[in-house]
Amino acid sequence: MKNPVKTILLFVMLHSNLAFAQNKQFVTSGVIEFEKTQNMFAIIKNKVTTDNAGNKAYYEQYLKSEPQFLTYKSTLIFNVNSSLFTPIPGKSIQWYYDAPIADQLNTVYSDFSRGTTTTQKEFYERTYLIKDTLRKIKWKITDETQTVAGYNCRRANGLVLDSVYVVAFYAEDIHVPSGPESFTGLPGIILKLSLPHEHVIWVATKVTPVAVGEKELVPPKKGIVVDYKQMLKVLTDAQSRWGQVGRYFIRGFFL
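User: That's the sequence. What structure does it adopt?
Assistant: Structure tokens below.
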């Protein structure tokens, strides 16, 4: 004969889990605050190359006079159809210490319903408006999890621009395939994103679920209109005589 107490406990547990699943709320719109942190010692060291040894003096001076880590803030507003990533101006970097990956150059509008993106990019005192399809990233989802900004997130490893390694933690409870900058394409919003070899990481510090209307999600409009291919030519032409540093800058500008 079955134990009646065990039967009742099992019944209560099953129905409690069912009720929890039915009441669980998935976030589909809101505002996310991000912090981007970069290791400036490592970034500036990447500018010291065999064909540009003159940068070594700047690197050594930075080690003596400036902090190792620099942090910027940004926001991402989103709903199920689109998102808008906006950098917040922070501490400026002297030009001889600067590198594109260490700056915040992009305002990024992503349209998931159409599969398109509009990115406003600052490039040497010129403003470009890149209009193209959403960036293709080769993602591989793993079983590793981590809590970010109060949300349980799953890890995904990615590859962008054929060679740049990306680590992302996305929240399955926020059903929007967006993230900081132009990093998208996962079954949940990216709350933590790392480019380990570029020495940069974005981490969500606050998620505010709130209704976001289409009027609040307006793509940037100012700039010289190009697509990704045309923008790459602009970058390549500008940096072609800079050797290894030029190639490093192109990668940073294009991320």
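The longest strand covers residues 138-148.
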